[in-house]
Amino acid sequence: KRRFRADLAEGATGPNGYHAPGELGARYNRFRSGFVFQGRTLWPLLGDGAAPDAADFVPRLDGWRGGVWRLAEAVLGRLEAELGDAGLLLPQPGHASGRLFA
């Protein structure tokens, strides 16, 4: 936990790393602790390979993250299509689709 402590200094690019209960978003995380990966960078939290699955950690986490993104894109794409079909979307100049979601 100390090795990957989150950098919460003012001006930090994001809270990457471990946070203790109540440290981030005090009310929401009052009793929660864990690791935060903000952005695309993933850290090899299982160390240098001593743990049985250490070498697989980053690729598996990256695969999981990709799956979550694909699920979100599918849900939002379906929502956009249904709202568009119902005439509930306003034109959004500058977006690739010209609709609510790019």
- Let me know the largest β-sheet: 2 strands, antiparallel
| CA-atom Rg in angstroms | 19 Å
- Tell me the series of helices and strands, N- to C-terminal: EEH
Q: Got a strand count?
A: 2
Q: How many DSSP H or I helices?
A: 1
Q: Tell me roughly what share of residues is in helical segments.
A: 25-40%
Global shape = elongated
- Structural class, by secondary structure, is mainly alpha
- Provide the low-confidence segments as ranges: none
Mean residue pLDDT: 75
Name the strands of the widest sheet in spatial order.
1-2
Q: State which percent range the strand residues make up.
A: 5-15%
Distance between the termini: 39 Å
Index terms:
102 residues; elongated; 1 helix; mainly alpha; 31% helix
Walk me through what this model shows.
This protein is mostly helical and 102 residues long. Helix content is 31%, strand content 6%. The protein contains one helix and two strands. It has one helix at 54-85; strands spanning 17-19, 34-36. The protein is elongated. The N and C termini lie far apart (39 Å). The mean pLDDT is 75.
Topology overview:
Elements (H helix, E strand, L loop, with lengths): L16 E3 L14 E3 L17 H32 L17
Antiparallel strand pairs: 1-2
